[in-house]
Specification:
The complex is a heterodimer of chains A (about 325) and B (about 525).
Chain A: E1 3-4, H1 10-20, E2 32-33, E3 45-51, E4 56-61, E5 66-70, E6 76-77, E7 84-85, E8 88-90, E9 95-96, E10 101-108, E11 114-120, E12 125-130, E13 142-145, E14 148-152, E15 159-163, E16 168-172, E17 181-186, E18 192-201, E19 208-217, E20 228-229, E21 237-243, E22 246-251, E23 254-259, E24 269-271, E25 285-287, E26 291-301, E27 304-314
Antiparallel strand pairs in A: 2-7, 3-4, 4-5, 6-27, 8-10, 9-10, 10-11, 11-12, 13-14, 14-15, 15-16, 17-18, 18-19, 19-20, 21-22, 22-23, 23-24, 25-26, 26-27
Chain B: H1 3-21, E1 48-50, E2 55-56, E3 69-70, E4 75-79, H2 86-92, H3 114-121, E5 128-142, H4 155-162, H5 165-172, E6 175-193, H6 197-209, H7 218-223, E7 232-240, E8 261-266, H8 271-285, H9 288-291, E9 299-307, H10 323-350, H11 358-381, H12 393-406, H13 408-411, H14 415-421, E10 423-429, E11 432-438, E12 444-449, E13 458-470, E14 473-482, E15 488-489, E16 492-497, E17 507-513, E18 521-529
Antiparallel strand pairs in B: 1-6, 3-5, 4-5, 5-6, 6-7, 6-9, 7-8, 10-11, 10-18, 11-12, 12-13, 13-14, 14-16, 16-17, 17-18
Helix pairs in contact in B: 4-5, 10-11, 10-12
Classes of the chains: A mainly beta (about 325), B alpha+beta (about 525).
Chain lengths: ~325, ~525
């Protein structure tokens, strides 16, 4: 018998999640291991999060190690030498709660044991709690709002939330009108923005044309058909962030933005990057409300390509 | 003025100017760039050539062609009845045919003209298979040998010879065009482009086993293959000589390909559209003979080379290039071919509907950018490798290597990243083979799982591959994959090394558990080339 999980059987979904959430009553202030410093010269980092307490930007590298750079050193290479909890690696992108905590999902090396990870940036200490989600945390983006983490299942249209402290997991099936969806950011009203990659066949060339369509879901709603398209869908977006009533995005070799309240009829506008008038790239971005900090890919030498370089542009 | 009209004008101008060329004095120094000299219509009677490449060394005619003739009874040569080889195509397109130059079919890519562009487009790649056809209608053009000795030289040739052997070789080459065809040529290329390497490879094997039909039956031949059901067929045509503007009524003008005409149709959903285009081309081909009636609008092609020494002119026979020079030429051609194939893979990967993460998208964009810059730079810098200055090629290759090394922003190539993307794993459970292919450079993968007979039809479920390093060598420590038996759709299996696993082997033995019943399931993961 084939059981359709997470799509038609939300009851089963809840039961299964309950079964999978393990160890929720036992947080562990883990001792840290001194992982060796990873050079960013030939590594990739995923996601970006700004921490106001230490005035730094955080990320995770391809070994699942937390990385950081003080904004005073931007532009520059991010450093991935933060001591990690013993035998646990980060398996998602990282997110800041704006109050000195960095959150991520993690995994015990060589096991199927998952963790919710909290890093206090001021004290440089970790707290890890066993938690199991019924989907793959393949370096997906996660969001923070009002003591909850928000995640999207990369394989279907389910939204997951983790209530911090209680460490309980809840889900809303068919939350995303298009899937797979990437949760992008909240605005100050609590509306959730997400993106979806479209793969349309060009009728003239019979080639697939990739583009990104952005959507906004009203605060507190169940999503689905309540989502509306945000901006025209003919752009190619890597990452999005809310700043001062606008949504900014990395898009090919441009920063683009559109004010909150935009619809499918509104074209994205281009933010000129004065520092880089010619070709540049932007993988991920975060903000301190005055600047966008972004991951730029650079050639280190003839054979080495790095995307561990952090740059900034004023907004 | 359209490119075609310019081409026709150039053909006419060339014919009219033969006499003028004969009064021009020899060039004092070797031509520094062949690009200007290698127009699609360089092949005229007496044109000086380097025998080992079959290509011109300058535009100065060094032999006396005053009494040249063009036959008055043109005949059909190729008639679209069977596909032609790359060598035959290049010969008709005046791109050189000397077999001793390694991979001479790639040579056309070094010349920035429409013929070279068409020839390059007609080359097979890992993703595409080409059926190329020719229709030719022509007479022989030649000139009589009036005596034996230096009297066969034109005034320019005599001046060059009197200036010394080196000046003569630089200006007049070691050979010349002794005869060629004059008429019109229609070249048609039917390209079948597949969605991934696996489908293309399977089709290549079946096509190699089968015969090639005439152009009229090629649509039926291709569309009857189950292997091509997801393929795109594109038809390109180029006419030289005659009045090629008429071709525009059949195929749309394609500005991106530099002036020849192309159209595309899906093999599965619009074979009739493909056939309609081909039928129109076949009808059109029957009108070509009328387009050159009266000896007008002639295109000269298929040059036959003669040696000056055999005319009794006191210069050495053509010499083979040194082994060092041939190696340098090969290096240039290989570097261009390699860069082109890498661009094709990266472009195809980005267009394959995978949920690529930002780092891969950026890497692909930037890598294509620098690889294309490499090709453009090598094309420009290596021109002398294939003309009369060919012996300077080893030095040129050294300079190219140094320049690429010292300017990574412009020409960088990340072998590590490229190899990561071009690698995949696959496992088999039951009768179902599933590939997992990278969508990031840090462990995020996606499945390409079989839901139908075609194992590559269903992309996109997330997977994660965890790695570690030992003494600088990476190995996989864990696979997280979608539920292997699909019992719990949406859940996943965690797979850890089995006791008999060798972590550095290409076939890995793992035990997978679904996290629900936790029944251990042995699964082999096999490292392979990315099938996309």
């Amino acid at each position: 018998m084939k059981i359709k999980f997470n799509q038609s059987s939300s009851l089963l979904s809840v039961l299964l999640i309950a079964a999978l959430v393990t160890g929720c009553n036992g947080s562990d202030n883990s001792s840290s291991s001194n992982s060796s410093t990873q050079s960013t010269s030939n590594t990739s980092i995923s996601g970006l999060a700004y921490d106001a307490v230490t005035n730094s930007v955080f990320s995770v590298n391809n070994f699942g190690t937390l990385c950081s750079i003080s904004v005073s050193k931007v532009p520059g290479d991010i450093s991935c030498n933060i001591a990690m909890p013993v035998n646990i690696v980060i398996t998602s992108q990282v997110v800041s709660d704006g109050s000195g905590n960095i959150y991520a999902l993690g995994k015990q090396v060589g096991s199927n044991v998952g963790y919710l990870m909290q890093y206090k940036t001021q004290d440089q200490t970790w707290t890890t709690t066993q938690i199991q989600l019924p989907y793959l945390a393949a370096f997906n983006k996660i969001l923070y709002r009002a003591n909850k983490l928000y995640l999207s299942d990369p394989n279907d249209g389910t939204l997951y939330t983790i209530t911090l402290g209680a460490n309980t997991v809840a889900s809303i099936t068919n939350y995303f009108i298009e899937s797979p969806a990437v949760v992008e950011d909240f605005d100050t009203s609590g509306n959730l923005y997400f993106s979806h990659q479209t793969n349309n066949l060009d009728s003239a060339t019979f080639r697939t044309v990739l583009a990104t369509t952005a959507y906004v879901v009203p605060a507190g709603s169940a999503g689905g058909n309540l989502a509306s398209q945000f901006g025209v869908g003919n752009v190619n977006i890597n990452d999005m962030a809310y700043v001062n009533n606008k949504i900014y995005a990395c898009a090919d070799s441009n920063f683009i933005y559109s004010p909150t309240g935009s619809t499918a009829a509104n074209n994205w506008q281009v933010l000129t990057n004065q520092a880089k008038p010619t070709y540049f790239s932007c993988d991920y971005l975060t903000t301190d409300s005055a600047n966008l900090y972004y991951v730029e890919a650079i050639w280190v030498d003839e054979n080495t390509f790095s995307n561990g370089y952090i740059n900034k542009v004023a907004v | 003025m359209s490119a075609k009209r310019q081409l026709l004008k150039y053909i006419s101008a060339t014919l009219l100017c033969l006499g003028v060329f004969s009064t021009v004095t020899y060039a004092n120094s070797a031509p520094k760039s062949l690009k200007g000299g290698v127009s699609p219509t360089w092949a005229v009677l007496g044109a000086p050539t380097l025998y080992t490449t079959g290509m011109p060394t300058s535009t100065i005619i060094c032999v006396d062609t005053t009494n040249s003739t063009v036959g008055s009874n043109p005949q059909a040569g190729f008639t679209l009845n069977s596909s032609v080889s790359g060598i035959e195509l290049n010969s008709v397109l005046n791109l050189g045919v000397k077999a001793e130059l390694p991979k001479i079919e790639s040579y056309g890519g070094l010349n920035a003209n429409l013929n070279a562009s068409f020839s390059a487009n007609a080359k097979n790649t890992e993703y595409s298979y080409n059926y190329t056809y020719l229709y030719t209608y022509s007479s022989e053009a030649t000139f009589p040998i009036i005596s034996y000795g230096d009297t066969n030289l034109s005034p320019s040739g005599k001046a060059a010879r009197e200036a010394g052997l080196e000046a003569f070789m630089n200006t007049c080459g070691d050979s010349y065009v002794s005869s060629l065809r004059a008429g019109t040529v229609l070249a048609v290329d039917v390209k079948v482009t597949f969605q991934n390497k696996e489908e293309a490879e399977s089709f290549f094997e079946s096509a190699a086993a089968g015969g090639y039909g005439a152009l009229g039956g090629i649509t039926t031949y291709i569309s009857s293959s189950q292997l091509a059901k997801n393929a795109v067929m594109s038809i390109s045509a180029m006419q030289l000589g005659g009045t090629p503007e008429s071709l525009n009524q059949i195929l749309g003008y394609d500005s991106t390909t530099g002036g020849y005409y192309a159209t595309a149709c899906g093999v599965a959903n619009s074979p009739a559209a493909c056939q309609k285009t081909i039928d129109a081309i076949l009808l059109y081909a029957n009108t070509l003979s009328t387009q050159i009636s009266g000896g007008t609008n002639l295109y000269f092609f298929n040059p036959v080379l003669g040696w000056y020494s055999k005319l009794g002119i006191s210069v050495p026979d053509p010499q083979a290039l040194s082994a060092e020079t041939q190696a340098a030429q090969s290096s240039v051609i290989n570097q261009i071919n390699l860069s082109q194939s890498r661009i094709i893979f990266l472009s195809n990967y980005k267009q394959n509907s995978l949920p690529l993460q930002a780092d891969v998208k950026t890497y692909i964009d930037k890598q294509i950018h620098t690889l294309q810059a490499r090709i453009d730079y090598i094309n420009s810098a290596a021109v002398d490798c294939f003309n009369a200055n060919a012996e300077t090629c080893p030095r040129i290759v050294g300079e190219i290597t140094q320049r690429i090394k010292s300017t990574p922003d412009a020409f960088g190539f990340s072998k590590d990243n490229y190899n990561k993307l071009n690698s995949a794993w696959y496992y088999t459970y039951g009768n179902r083979s599933t590939y997992i292919v990278p969508v990031s450079l840090f462990g995020a993968y996606a499945t390409i799982a079989g839901t139908t007979d075609n194992p590559l039809d269903k992309p996109g479920l997330a997977a994660t591959v965890y790695s570690a390093q030992e003494n600088g060598v990476s190995y996989v420590t864990q696979f997280d994959i979608p539920d292997i038996d699909f019992l719990f759709w949406g859940s996943y299996n965690t797979c850890l090394p089995a006791s008999n696993d060798d972590k550095f082997a290409t076939t890995r033995n793992f035990i997978c558990r679904d996290g629900i019943f936790n029944t251990p399931t042995p699964v082999q993961f096999i490292a392979t080339t990315n099938p996309i």
